[in-house]
Amino acid sequence: MKKILAFLTILSTFTFVFAQSTDDVPKEKVTIDKTIQKIVPENQRIATNPETGKPRPASVRIEYSEQYDEIRVYYTCMEVAFDKTEATVTISEVVKDFEKEHNYFKHTYLGRDKTRHFKDSRGIKMAEFVSYIKLYR
After folding, report:
1. d(CA 12, CA 10)
2. I need a surface site. Which of 71, 130, 133, 137 has the fewest CB within 10 A?
3. 80-107 burial, b if ≥16 CB within 10 A, otherwise e?
4. What predicted TM-score, i.e. pTM, was given to this entire model?
């Protein structure tokens, strides 16, 4: 028992004597790029209204997090003209274009698509359809 106690005492003494202080260790600052790029695609892929032949009053924007290879795609239009299937088709076409531009080959949905209804600054009722997508290289 005395030998074990003596060994532990000697071991702890060496530990305290030769311990390195934290001031001697160089401090490296790790910077993580958490920026989100807001992109408005040139080709919005908005379907045309069959009655008038004009594009529907809608817009698409993308929030791209390059570090995590994730995007959120927002399809916004007036509530009276909102069609969920049309929004889904438009978003899938925009995502395919985005994959080609940024050298991705596959994508998966990270959650359910969400629909949000709100009034804009002018008091017009709007609908927003959001998809949360993970991209793979």
Report:
1. 6
2. 137
3. eebeeebbeebbebbbeebbeeeebeeb
4. 0.74
